[in-house]
Each structure stands twice: as structure tokens, then as C-alpha cells.
């Protein structure tokens, strides 16, 4: 019976020993930086008022357990710096002296950060653990929308919008257990880079109209990219490169890319399944000689066919983006891959073709119809050069 009062007293004494977090009304300070500087080392909540706030030097957040909350798009920080400096810097103040320094649990929510061509990143975060970005609008920066560097523990980005940034919408370097969920990316150079990391979970995002690529993953493993809409990149929708392994790309809609859909440049032990590919101009999936041991199954490869012998888009037009197109799987000397249960229809190319000999391939029980539109009439739709260990059989060609 006496344990409960004793525990309560212990909890009260422990809490009172340190300075409690504070709530800061930034409207009462002469500048946003002054408001951020008023937060004690124990952290706190900073409430940003509505309004436009022009800055010429980066705003710095240097306390952990700190949450910065705005009034949605009505709170707009405008970066006027023309020396390539970020809008916001989140970084331990002692990091230059102590390379192991970290800040924990810094959160940004519900405000806009607007840059211009000569500014740097919108948000630059280094050595921030359990960083959380939610409801942020980051646009028009000369650098990345967001750059996370060594934010190793559990970074989360959700319900944000990244638009018109000259580099990536989101750049992630040396992080793990990463969640990028339900965001919108539009007209950045690339949407997202994830490099030297692991356990990326990228789900339910809309990636549209990028000047180069969509999602580029390098030297990363144990990750999943699923349920995303990735449309209209001038380059390729998804690229795996530099020793990627153990990654699943599944249930994505990959539509309208001038180069390709998924490019396995250097990827092993990956699963590519239940994706829909339409209007990919050079290839829907490419598997290079530096990739192998991958599975591609239950995907649909098509053009703009809408039934009754009709395509939604014309065969020819003024721009590549305006015309009908469909492509299949290009193999460039890969080995030990399974390609089964896929549907190929309305393609200019073969369903599956190789440009270099492949080894130990299992290619079976795929369906192809109306393929090879831009090939000679007698061209094979499964045109694979492979060794004796490969099995290519029981594929259906409906001509």
C-alpha cells in the first residue's frame, strides 16, 4: 500500500531536478532566431505565427526535445540568401568539436519554407536522431528540399510537399529505419535519394513531373518501396545502384517515363512484384550485368490500351510525352533471376529481350499479347540469349 506514494514522490523529485521544457510564442520575440534561442537545453514547443518572414542567414535550431509548429501555409519563411546557405539548420552546436554529438527528437510541423535559385537546402539536418517532419511545405530552393545527413536513428517524413527544388526533394545519407510516407514530390530535379543507408520504408507517396529521376537508392539494403504513384520523370522512375540488396519494389504505379521504369543497375536479392508499368519509353525494367538473383513476378507491362482495339494516346505526336508507348524487360547479361507470371501487352518492344548472354535464368509462365509493334513481324517476343542452365518455357504468346 505504501509503494504508490513512494513512487510518486520519486517521480516528482526526478522531474523537478531538471528545468522543464517551455512553450515559446515566437510572436513575442524580435525575430524567429531569438525565439529559437530562448528554448532551454531541456527543449520545448515553439509556436510560429502566421506571416511572411524573410531571412538572409540560416535559422538554427540547436536544442533537442524541441517541436516547431506553424500555422500551415500561412506561416512562410522566405530565404533571401544568395550564397547557397540553407533556410533551416538543425545541428548539435558542439558537433565541430565532438563528432559524436547528437540532438534527439527535433520536430518540425505545419509551415512553409520558400527558397530561390541561389539559396541552399530548405532544411539541412545533421546528427539529429528521431527527427520528425510533418505537414511541411518546402519549395523553390537552389539545393535539396530536405537533406538528412547522419540522422541515423529513425527519421520520419510524412504528409509533406516538396516542389520545384533544384536538387532532390529529399536527400538521405547514412540513416536507418527511415519512414517516408504520404508525401507529395513535384518538379524537383529528383524526388528522393537514399544513400549509404538501410531499412527505408517509402510508402504511399505521389511522385510527379520530375526533371530527371524519381527514386534513386544507392548502397542501401533491407528496404521497401511500395504503393507509390511515380509519374512523368524525364529519366527513370526507380534506380537501384551501388551494392543494393534485399529490397522490395511492389505495388507501385510507374507511368509515363521518357527513359525507364525500374533500373536495377547494381542490385541483388531484390523482389519486383505487382507493379503496373505504362508508357515507359526505353524499358519498363532493366537488369544489368552487375545485378542478379532477383525475382520479377506478377507485374503488368502495358501501353494506353483501353479496350475495343483502341489506345488512349496516338502512336505519333509532337512530343514523346504525348504519344502511346509500352516496353518490357531488358536483360543485359544478368544471372540467376526468376521472371514469371507477368503480363505484357501493347508493347513496341519484345516482352523480354536480352542484349548480352544471361546465365541460370528461370523465365516461365508469362503472358504476351500485341507485343513487338515496332519490330519485324517475325520477331520473337521472348528473345533471350542464355546458357544451358536456363529454363525458358511455357510462356504464352497470343499473336
TrEMBL record:
SMART domains: PbH1. Residues 1-18 form the signal peptide. The keyword Signal applies. InterPro entries: NosD_dom (IPR007742), PbH1 (IPR006626), Pectin_lyas_fold (IPR012334), Pectin_lyase_fold/virulence (IPR011050). SUPFAM superfamilies: Pectin lyase-like (SSF51126). Residues 162-308 form the Periplasmic copper-binding protein NosD beta helix domain. The keyword tRNA processing does not apply. Keywords: Signal. This is Periplasmic copper-binding protein NosD beta helix domain-containing protein. It comes from Prosthecobacter algae. The lineage of its organism: Bacteria, Pseudomonadati, Verrucomicrobiota, Verrucomicrobiia, Verrucomicrobiales.
